[in-house]
Every structure is written in C-alpha cells, then in structure tokens.
Amino acid sequence: MNATIAVVAGDGIGPEVVGQALRVLEAVARKHGHTFSFPQAPVGGCAIDRFGTALPEESLALCRRADAVLFGAVGGPKWDDPAAPVRPEQGLLGLRKGLDLFANLRPVQVLPALAGASTLKPEAIAGVDFIVVRELTGGLYFGPRGRREIDGQEAAYDTMIYSVPEVERVAHVAFRLARGRRRLVTSVDKANVLECSRLWRQVVSRVAGEYPDVVLEHQLVDSCAMALVREPRHFDVILTENMFGDILTDEAAQLTGSIGMLPSASLGAGRQGLYEPIHGSAPAIAGQDVANPLAAILSAAMLLRHSLVLEREAREVEAAVGRVVAAGYRTADLARPGEAAVGTRAMGEMVVREIEGL
C-alpha cells in the first residue's frame, strides 16, 4: 500500500512522541512492503511563531490531501494567555472542523501488566475495556460566545448548540462500533437540566431503533463520572457530546495508570482521520526524553486500522506494546517509586523490535 500520512508534531513533547510513532509506522511499512510518506504540517504554537496563525492554510491543505493525519500536541507557557486572540488550541479545533471530523474515538483498556499502576485497586479495574465516542465539532466549544454587560456588570457566555443531524451521525458511529463489541451503548447527557441534552436523548433513542441488536441505556454525566470509578467494567461504548467527552476521557485515563497510555481517533464520514494521544504538550518535561510515547504509538495503530484498513498491522502494533509492557518496561509516568524507568526513545525502540520479531 502507498499512503500519505500528514505529520503534525506540534509543541512540547509532541515531536518526541510522534517521532516514536513514526519509527513504528516505518517498521510496519518495511515488514509488510508498504510505502508511507510523512509530509510535515506546522500547527499550534510553532505555527504561531512562524506564521502568526495556529493553522496556516498550507497546513490545512496538506492535511486535506493526506490519507490520514498523525498529531502530537499543541500549547505551552509561551502562548498561555487566555485573552490572546491567537492560541495554539485553535489549530487543533480548526483541523477537526476543516476536515469535518465529527466523531472522536477514545479506547480505554487496562493492560493486565499495568493493573497496579492505577490508583484504583487492581481487582476493580481488571478487564476494563470500553471506548468513548465523543461528538467533536459541536456543543460549547463551537457555539457563539462573547462578553456583554448585564445589569451593569460584565458577563460572559458560551452557547451549547446541537442539531438533529449532528447527533444522528455520531450516534450511528457508536451503534456500529457496539455491534462489533458487547452490544451496549451508554449515552451520557444532562437531560434533567439542559435542553440540548433532551434533544440528544430523543435523537439517540430514535437512532437506537435501527439497531435492535444493541442495548441502549441513558446516564446523566455526573452519575457516569461516579460509575467510571465505581464499576468501570460495566461500560462498552460510551456516547456523549463534546465537553462531557473531553472531561470523562481524562478521568477514564486514570484507570489505565497514566494519560500517556490513551490514544484517540477523530473520524468523519470517510476513511480519513486524525490520530493523536489524548495527553497535552507537557512542556515541563519536553526535550528530556522522559515522555511516554505509547499513546502516540497506539494512535498510529488506530490510524492503520481505521484510515488505511490494515487490521493485521494494527494488531501487531498493539501486541508489540502489550509485550513490552508485560516485560516490565515503564516510562517515568508508569514507574513505581524506586523502579527504573526507560526513556521515550528507548521505549519506541523496544516496540519496534517487538514488531520486527512478531
């Protein structure tokens, strides 16, 4: 297969973890006779410094032409003024919108070897394996916002808006995924308070009628936040809107022991997608060779699966990660007190060796 994978390394630890994911993709290509090209697209703080915008038109155009996009992370103290008119995060949001990527898939799986890395008891998280489907281009993050005077006082507003088609299309993604899993969809909303959530629940219930083989349950977001800690094994596919999904997946990351273990895929109507670790740019550890590259590597596995339709290769990458972790290797975020940790490059190298040996 010939494929073009646009590389958006970004800021902070982004270039480091993406660099290891690229090594893994190159190893896969060598092993299976594929040809992957990796054009670079500046986005985020690095793009602001060079071009004055977080998402240059050339970068968006490059990503649109590519078969898939591998993304690192954006942001850092240099650009951390909330009042600034141009911010690194605008680059990622603009990419998602510009590529019409409306469904964010975030798998949460606890590897047996990492059960002790979580702050929860190992018996509470053993066997946890679910996926969150987060709507990505609507809700509070994209609705009208601003400031105005109310009763003589400065006030601010953000607006949550969802249309029926927006809810329908992401709901179909969740139900189709559930058919290949345990056939349970948990739709998360705040229907006891928000009108948007009442529409969400109404539309999801209607879509569920097209999937009689899948069980649908509704859960309020605050209740779901508790259940993720109390009974995480219950969940199979969690479907929710943009902000709720953003928050719940960061909580769910702690089940795995570290946010450095969670990959994600942002998908649209076609095969093209954007793949990224869910962690941030972690500027405090950038350039120190201590960041965990496994979320970026697992994101590359999702890229192989969803955009390139290379299921065997995706499973090989995931198996390689599992074998390295099972062998006891840990980056600093996963190492216990007194336990030796390996660096970013060393972890990537071990995954590559496992792929070559599978």
Unreliable parts: none
Strand ordering within the main sheet: 2-1-3-12-11-4-5-10-8-9
Average pLDDT confidence is 95
CATH fold title of the largest domain: Isopropylmalate Dehydrogenase
Write the layout of secondary structure elements.
Blueprint: E1 2-10, H1 14-32, E2 35-37, H2 45-51, H3 57-65, E3 68-73, H4 89-98, E4 103-109, H5 122-125, E5 129-135, E6 145-150, E7 153-158, H6 164-179, E8 184-189, H7 195-208, E9 215-220, H8 221-230, E10 237-240, H9 242-253, E11 265-267, E12 273-275, H10 294-306, H11 311-326, H12 344-357
Parallel strand pairs: 1-2, 1-3, 3-12, 5-10, 8-9, 8-10
Antiparallel strand pairs: 4-5, 4-11, 6-7, 11-12
Helix pairs in contact: 1-10, 1-12, 6-7, 8-9, 10-11, 11-12
Could you explain the architecture of this structure?
The protein is an alpha/beta fold. It has 2 domains: 1-99 and 269-358, Isopropylmalate Dehydrogenase (3-Layer(aba) Sandwich); 119-256, Isopropylmalate Dehydrogenase (3-Layer(aba) Sandwich). The chain is built from 12 helices and 12 strands. A 10-stranded mixed sheet has the order 2-1-3-12-11-4-5-10-8-9, with helices on both faces. The protein has a two-stranded antiparallel ribbon with strand order 6-7. The longest helix is centred in the first third of the chain and has 19 residues, at 14-32.
Tell me briefly what this model is.
Helices cover 40% and strands 18% of the residues. The chain has 358 residues and is of the alpha/beta class.
